[in-house]
Amino acid sequence: MKNGVKIVTIGGGSSYTPELVEGFIKRFDSLPVKELWLVDILAGKEKLDIVAGLARRMVKKAGIPMEIHTTLDRREALEGADFVTTQLRVGGLSARIKDERIPLSHGILGQETNGAGGLFKGMRTIPVIIDICKDMEELCPKAWLINFTNPVGMVMEGIVKHTNFRKIIGLCNVPIGMHKAIADLMDRKMEEVEVTFGGLNHMVFATKVVIDGVDVTKEVIKKWADQTVKNIKGIVWEPDFLEALGVLPCSYHRYYYMTKEYLAEAMEKLKEHKVRAEFVKEVEDKLFEIYKDPNLCEKPKLLEERGGAYYSDAACSLIDSIYNDRGDIQVVNTVNYINSDNHKAIQNFEVNEVIEASCKITKDGAVPVEIGELPKAVNGLIQQIKSFEIIGSDAAVSGDKKEALLALMINPLVMSQETAKIVLDELLEAHKDYLPQFFK
Amino acid sequence: MKNGVKIVTIGGGSSYTPELVEGFIKRFDSLPVKELWLVDILAGKEKLDIVAGLARRMVKKAGIPMEIHTTLDRREALEGADFVTTQLRVGGLSARIKDERIPLSHGILGQETNGAGGLFKGMRTIPVIIDICKDMEELCPKAWLINFTNPVGMVMEGIVKHTNFRKIIGLCNVPIGMHKAIADLMDRKMEEVEVTFGGLNHMVFATKVVIDGVDVTKEVIKKWADQTVKNIKGIVWEPDFLEALGVLPCSYHRYYYMTKEYLAEAMEKLKEHKVRAEFVKEVEDKLFEIYKDPNLCEKPKLLEERGGAYYSDAACSLIDSIYNDRGDIQVVNTVNYINSDNHKAIQNFEVNEVIEASCKITKDGAVPVEIGELPKAVNGLIQQIKSFEIIGSDAAVSGDKKEALLALMINPLVMSQETAKIVLDELLEAHKDYLPQFFK
Amino acid sequence: MKNGVKIVTIGGGSSYTPELVEGFIKRFDSLPVKELWLVDILAGKEKLDIVAGLARRMVKKAGIPMEIHTTLDRREALEGADFVTTQLRVGGLSARIKDERIPLSHGILGQETNGAGGLFKGMRTIPVIIDICKDMEELCPKAWLINFTNPVGMVMEGIVKHTNFRKIIGLCNVPIGMHKAIADLMDRKMEEVEVTFGGLNHMVFATKVVIDGVDVTKEVIKKWADQTVKNIKGIVWEPDFLEALGVLPCSYHRYYYMTKEYLAEAMEKLKEHKVRAEFVKEVEDKLFEIYKDPNLCEKPKLLEERGGAYYSDAACSLIDSIYNDRGDIQVVNTVNYINSDNHKAIQNFEVNEVIEASCKITKDGAVPVEIGELPKAVNGLIQQIKSFEIIGSDAAVSGDKKEALLALMINPLVMSQETAKIVLDELLEAHKDYLPQFFK
Amino acid sequence: MKNGVKIVTIGGGSSYTPELVEGFIKRFDSLPVKELWLVDILAGKEKLDIVAGLARRMVKKAGIPMEIHTTLDRREALEGADFVTTQLRVGGLSARIKDERIPLSHGILGQETNGAGGLFKGMRTIPVIIDICKDMEELCPKAWLINFTNPVGMVMEGIVKHTNFRKIIGLCNVPIGMHKAIADLMDRKMEEVEVTFGGLNHMVFATKVVIDGVDVTKEVIKKWADQTVKNIKGIVWEPDFLEALGVLPCSYHRYYYMTKEYLAEAMEKLKEHKVRAEFVKEVEDKLFEIYKDPNLCEKPKLLEERGGAYYSDAACSLIDSIYNDRGDIQVVNTVNYINSDNHKAIQNFEVNEVIEASCKITKDGAVPVEIGELPKAVNGLIQQIKSFEIIGSDAAVSGDKKEALLALMINPLVMSQETAKIVLDELLEAHKDYLPQFFK
User: Fold this and answer.
1) Could you tell me the pTM of the whole model?
2) What number is the ipTM of this complex?
3) Which of A151, C160, C234, C330 has the fewest other C-beta atoms within 10 Å?
4) In this structure, CATH architecture of domain A1-440
């Protein structure tokens, strides 16, 4: 890194990229990115070129010596990289539309981490990420892989359980969003509110909130519930439930605690051709139209509606802390190991299982803080998702249809053997091209 | 016990009692029951007298010196007892009908151990069983309590976590039924087929089957699935799923893996006024008519259709093994502790959590055999039920409505916050008389 | 307890009793002890009468209606008791002298909890305590047993692993002494200094010290070490070691971390006939001479040199908190279970293993506070002592000489197979009368 | 590996190398080693040349196309390697002599894995192995590292806890020696006797012995003890102890269970200048004289007395099984993880702690078989050694003298704070040149 940092972004043609570029520009003084390599596949070449054009205009306007490279040859880019980020989407948004519509058409809820859709996204993605890890071991063994491709938990389990590669950190924008919302609720700035997070990806809890040295967790839980009750539209948490739970759930928890309510809503949207993936696609199409504008040289406002807001900024922040050995706290996905003194961060999980938690970030990566034991009341659900992540990643690697069925059957959103079998067959057929391991 | 064994059966007016009496008569040579005390409450006096009449005729016919006592004063009966069995039903079958109908009317599946119904049965029952334990500590501190009142798992957690009473063993007829079915499938006698069971009550797995010293588990799993496939009526297991699972599930597992299928069936029966509790009530009414017959002096055939077949016989067998220090293997509910060498029977659970497992039975009670680790694929579901049992038993003791809501919300059959709140209110109102802890 | 509290003290003829009596007198307003039964065996009758005489004079002077009863019939005393304390010593101090001298004569260090001596004290004591528990289940099932007979850890494991009796709490004066020493060191009153303790009996650590809401653990550790360094006489802790350890060890830890130093000192004393037991015997003889004085009607000053200072006062304080449901924090021995939310107090031990820790005391007994994970650096030693306690209690119950040898061999102070065999034979022979289980 | 396998042996000038070469020659048909690179440092150049000369004569005689390369430039050798073996000794045998003599001169027992000597060997070695791992990540990311440099357990913990490198397997010849001895005892060939091993390096137990499908563990334990009793010379196991232990200890266990006996013997040898390292040095000097003989073209018989017999052969066998994806069982050191179904091999250890156990060897490395729970009686000792390995490896990486003191203090062979401090200072001084991390 003597002559500046080399970053490789796989899935570089993604609509997220301008936020990433903005993040690197903002931090150039402390994190001098000399080369940013945007890698994509042939099918994504057009988008890649559009995004790279915007990126170059942004850099030029900023007046900094950051080179933007594009390539379809991943290995060319990886050679000597310092950090690699993965924001790829195997099969693109049209695959995600199938992940959501096919299960819903049989009454099963889900998205790209939940339910049947999450399993298929995982099975398409894990073999690709494993290949990237292998290339990195060979071409840039010192580099860190920052993965923000979903399902982050299942992808991380796939790497940890099925490879020897350990320089990987998973990233999600849910905790940062909760942190912001809690600060707003308490009328404070984010940096004044210390929030401890612990759980799994898309199943993370805020376990403790401290302001001015005082533990205000109970107060926050109460306000959180009251606020949602006032918000008459939408699906809100019951205050009694939150109080008894004793920790703050994230938005994705509603899929499991309010399945019926969410399913009803999703069925409405299905009819109107507005499953989440379709909504995202619409926004993306608009974004690329905007990106094309040769006069645009900054991240457009609309990107914040895309759903992944803060995602790329969180990635830049993480890279900056590793590069500068900052030792600050960020919420990421890593294994449940602290050190030889206090070896587990969350007592409910095994030490080699992947958790999403508040971590100290240094040049050696991420180390979780001590969280203790999550309440018995949440233990069942988090173990169920952990089982699903593990069995799902096993199926992704083995290509064994029986294991894929097992993963579906143990998912708490499926709840029907008959539907599981039908949906498995339909999704395997729909994603045939991206699941070669099942068609050997 | 010098002058013969004294047994106390609480809920003695139950239709199960004749099987229990038959069991003691059969075993009189090795297990000389001198006094059998049938205890019930005032509301059950008529049934108690009918059952006692039949019991006395059975004993007389057998020509053995076993005294049948009846009383409405539990403490009178407990004085100096050697074994106590609990087959009581707080609120009777009419309470169970509410447990099933009210949730179903809001689309929630359940029975007396599953879902919302199981929670309410537990909350009505646990305080009563705790009182019985307190009386036993005072009046017959050496006696063993054999509990077959459902929900057995939640009741056992209530005793283990909230009292210091340890002389309790929980009993269920599901494992003995599976054992018999496996033997039939393999064309063998039960005693030729060694089956190891491990899991939770109504969530037990056959983890290993050995015949003539050979491990035939895989073969049994295959046959089990094939057989259910041939059986075109009813809800059957998918062979691929069972093979990937690697252990044999019990019938109650279908509630969780085939929720949709079961719910559809239950909704049909709801309309026809044939929820399980109503069917059981019908059989029971017939049974009591038959029991009244002054010429009847044996257990009538119809009792086998009651659903609890083998239950009472299993209880007699368990008492016999404790009394005679037999050291044989029976499947019961007890804590997950073996001994200081191999301290946990099932690695997935804590050492003080209650499991249902193959146990060695001696004069010191039940000690589980070493089961090892249940597959990761089932870990999520069993932890979810264990969380529910524990939080449910906490709510039963505290009488805190928030904790009861929490228990409902974490149950995998409820899946809706809105429904949870409605069903909680309706069931609390319906069972007001039997839940004084919630109306202080 | 309507008409005042009934206390039974087994081993009532002990020299500790006057402190116990003083404790009850002091607390009479909140803890109205109506009857104090001092129970002993025939061989201890003379001492029992001396102690009872003094006790009666103390009560008379205090002018309170507390009856002092003496009896040699334990069962007579236990009938209807509210609290039972055990301060018995099977074989008396002369047995303890053998426990110390025989191993030392072969170069093995130990006392009544450590090494070979601790094992034999445990094997003599556990069967007696088990008998007391059985009597209590029958005669006073609601009473609590407060055990301060050593080895407290092994005795507790004996009860927890080999009986169903759970109303037992173990007590030791080491933590209260450390608490006092820490307060002195910081120039504060004890009640201003909050110290969290966790570990095993005679192997407890102060894990956290808080003053005025500030965590001062590191400062205390530094001062503790500096102070001991200044104290040129005696065996002192190395500051670097304490800093790296990160928790404050108790005095008994020196047996294991400074075996060589302690052994050298003990060998000197052996020659001078001043092993600890002999020193204690000398003090005791003097104490009984003083107790006889018909004009004495208070606890004499000399008792504080006896070694068990604060022991009896701690017992009174514990009984008072249970009786009045105080919910205060005291350090006692109990199982490692908190509640269903945070189920283990110390992560290093199993949930049903006995720990010594800061506990909340209520009418339902003692529940440990959450300690978290003790440092990896101490895990080896605490597991070794836990293994020794468990195997030792197994041997005490089974009377199997092979298991007793195993317990000796795994004790970290024995370190020689040859010596283990010799010492085992010599101690079995020396204590033959008190170890009937080994001579069946 | 298309054109044959490339092996790199670091510490190639070791006297072990001819056994390694013989092993590769024997297996050439299945494991076609094209290049064997012997790497050493300048100080070892003479030995390296002698060994390489012999190796070339051996290969020539065998008539196979295996190239023997020598180099002092490790990175040159590593480029593109398939397997790397480490048999280096930082500081050579003269450092080992200090490791043994200095502690012994203060009455502390030890060798290169035990006690103070083991700690210093570890602290000299771990930074070097970490550097090798870093080079491998860069130069041969697909290669496996087979480490047989002691202390294997501490070195492995150093890599697992302080790096992200996972392609490492630790090797020891103790299990293979025990396997052979058990087979001899039972008058069988090794391949007829199935022995399951579990524990830590130099602290491994044979937990199960099966012959012709029958579990003969108890019989083997009995014979093992009887045999050692007959063998009047030397230090032998007490049969009662082995029976109560229930598993077969390895020879290194005697250091802990018979410390006194071993220490006496070692003190004798110390006086005669025959500590183990000195004996080894004598044999080595003779070996190199023999190796020089230009007519010698095979491994001389004397090498078998060297102490590491079977070590190199075990390494060849391990490499062969990985290369050919054999799936056979070998005993190696790896992390305690099996798979998502049965995730821990030995329940006593955490899933990411390094164990020595029977493992299945495939192209993906080593996966332990399911061992279950080691007896409570051995839990204390194995946890103590595991703590020592972990704290020792922490000190090796941090270069913090306080942590090194902590490691010494918790080692069961040190037992004296005073001695610990003296020995620490003397050994730091003695090994100054090889411990730069402590002298920054």
Assistant:
1) 0.87
2) 0.93
3) C234
4) Alpha-Beta Complex (3.90)
